[in-house]
């Protein structure tokens, strides 16, 4: 049974401000986390959420305001101080030591010592087994961290926090890379920690998760505090309006488009052990959603179509012409563009400017006598930055300093600059705020209306159902269903993703 919150918040921020030079990242920040409660912190990218987390974690020092822990003022000057005070942060992508065991990662820097000062490995292992039993986690304490899923890595970080007796746990976008089953396991652990009397802060762009898990919601906008409301007393529309300062009338603005001739035709695509007999068609003006659980092989198919990865058999055609396999440059010449799942690692050079990133796929076209100047790059990139409304101080701004939503716009601009006929976009709105999601969806719909063929890979079912004209579902490397928009529901898509072929499968389409 959930414990009643104590009178004094477990952690409280009052009027906290943080500036970087002339830029105020957080002004008069307010937050009160209570023991025995899960508190959501929501806002668009750039709203100040990350600054709040880094101040609480001791990475940044506040410029003004007050922080209280269990009613007492605190002033953390380092992450070590915050940890020793009982604060733990679970990030979207944990940073474990891959060559060390699960147990060694949990006890890194604080190994128990036995006789003669030797590390007591038996005591460490017994403690880890007890922690996992407490959390309901099944994992071998002796296996190395290398190769563990993101979900398992997060469980290790949570076990470490519990072993340190952390009373305040911050979960920063913890579900972004998890499957539905992994999300539910994480939520089960989060609820058990809440029921033990700990205070949890949950940061997410996914409203279904926020309203499912959290007791209270704090909204931020433009670096400022907006409101704190009990989850039971609000709804997603109201939260969105507070986040963006305006009504988002359509999160999925699907425009009518004339469906034309096939542009992308994939037939019998097979890569042993990865995917088998993949076949589907995307027509001009059509958005096809490629759905399935994490690990179903969706991204691998996209990479094979674009030539990043090879495949043993099958064919890819654009407008009836064969595209050579294993050659991204040939795919680009054929009119295919791929916006990858991991924009930071695969889509951008974070240390380079907005202009250089945007122009990077068309350098051959804009070069003069084999040279490309900064001015030429900026001239080529500016129209796309303006069209996509990239929020950057200048074209020379480094891509790594932009918010996630603006980074995604830069990657989109980079590939749209190639004037593609087929756009493959993998997780188009992962990790970006609701306002920018609506902008990206509107852009995809407009591109389809202009005659582009769009293959959209997404783990968010509402996005697939809201944007796709047709949903192709994969399970364990095979297509199990192709469902028209009018017939697609969460139930039949999930059935095809988890159990195999659904009744709505269009066998003719699969063989196309």
TrEMBL record:
Keywords linked to the UniProt accession: ATP-binding, Cell membrane, Membrane, Nucleotide-binding, Repeat, Sugar transport, Translocase, Transport
UniProt cross-references to InterPro entries, sorted A to Z: AAA+_ATPase (IPR003593), ABC_carbohydrate_import_ATPase (IPR050107), ABC_transporter-like_ATP-bd (IPR003439), ABC_transporter-like_CS (IPR017871)
Bilayer topology: Peripheral membrane protein
GO molecular function: ATP binding; ATP hydrolysis activity
Transmembrane residue ranges: none
GO CC terms in record: plasma membrane
SMART domains hit by this protein: AAA
Top-rank taxon: Bacteria
Primary location recorded for the protein, binned into one broad class: membrane
Subcellular location: Cell membrane
ABC transporter domain residues: 11-247, 259-501
PANTHER family noted in UniProt: CARBOHYDRATE TRANSPORT ATP-BINDING PROTEIN MG119-RELATED, D-ALLOSE IMPORT ATP-BINDING PROTEIN ALSA-RELATED
Protein name from the UniProt record: Ribose import ATP-binding protein RbsA
Taxonomic placement: Bacteria, Bacillati, Actinomycetota, Actinomycetes, Micrococcales
């Amino acid at each position: 049974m959930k414990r009643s919150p104590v009178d004094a918040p477990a952690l409280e921020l009052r009027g906290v401000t943080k500036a970087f030079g002339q830029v105020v990242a957080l002004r008069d920040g307010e937050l009160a986390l209570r023991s025995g409660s899960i508190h959501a912190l929501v806002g668009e990218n750039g709203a100040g959420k990350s600054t709040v987390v880094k101040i609480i974690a001791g990475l940044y020092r506040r410029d003004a305001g007050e922080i209280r822990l269990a009613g007492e003022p605190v002033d953390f000057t380092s992450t070590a101080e915050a940890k020793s005070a009982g604060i733990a942060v679970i990030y979207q992508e944990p940073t474990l030591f891959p060559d060390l065991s699960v147990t060694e990662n949990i006890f890194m820097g604080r190994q128990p010592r036995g006789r003669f000062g030797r590390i007591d490995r038996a005591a460490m292992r017994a403690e880890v087994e007890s922690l996992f039993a407490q959390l309901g986690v099944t994992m071998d304490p002796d296996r190395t961290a290398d190769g563990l899923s993101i979900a398992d890595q997060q469980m290790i970080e949570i076990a470490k926090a519990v072993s340190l007796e952390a009373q305040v746990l911050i979960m920063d976008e913890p579900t972004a890379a998890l499957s539905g089953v992994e999300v539910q396991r994480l939520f089960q652990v989060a609820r058990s920690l809440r029921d033990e009397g700990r205070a949890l802060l949950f940061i997410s762009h996914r409203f279904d998760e926020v309203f499912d898990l959290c007791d209270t919601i704090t909204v931020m906008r433009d670096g400022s505090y907006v409101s704190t409301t009990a989850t039971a007393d609000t709804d997603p529309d109201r939260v969105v309006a507070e986040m963006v300062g305006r009504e988002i009338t359509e999160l999925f603005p699907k425009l009518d488009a004339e469906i034309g001739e096939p542009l992308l035709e994939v037939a019998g695509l097979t890569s042993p052990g990865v995917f088998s007999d993949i076949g589907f068609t995307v027509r001009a003006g059509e958005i096809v959603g490629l759905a399935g659980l994490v690990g179903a092989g969706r991204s691998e198919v996209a990479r094979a179509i674009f030539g990043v990865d090879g495949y043993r058999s099958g064919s890819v055609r654009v407008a009836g012409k064969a595209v050579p396999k294993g050659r991204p440059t040939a795919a680009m010449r054929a009119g295919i563009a791929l916006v990858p799942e991991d924009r930071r690692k695969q889509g951008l050079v974070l240390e380079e400017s907005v202009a250089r990133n945007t122009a990077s796929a068309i350098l051959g076209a804009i070069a003069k006598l084999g040279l490309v100047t900064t001015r030429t790059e900026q001239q080529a990139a500016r129209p796309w930055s303006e069209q996509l409304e990239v929020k950057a101080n200048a074209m020379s701004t480094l891509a790594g300093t932009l918010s996630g939503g603006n980074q995604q716009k830069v990657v989109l601009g980079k590939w749209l600059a190639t004037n593609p006929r087929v756009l493959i976009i993998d997780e188009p709105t992962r990790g970006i705020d609701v306002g920018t999601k609506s902008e990206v969806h509107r852009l995809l719909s407009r591109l389809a209306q202009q005659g582009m063929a769009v293959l959209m890979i997404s783990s968010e079912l509402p996005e697939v159902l809201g944007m796709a004209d047709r949903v192709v579902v994969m399970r364990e490397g095979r297509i199990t269903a192709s469902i028209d928009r009018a017939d697609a529901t969460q139930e039949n898509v999930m059935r095809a993703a988890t159990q195999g072929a659904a009744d709505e499968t269009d066998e003719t389409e699969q063989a196309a």
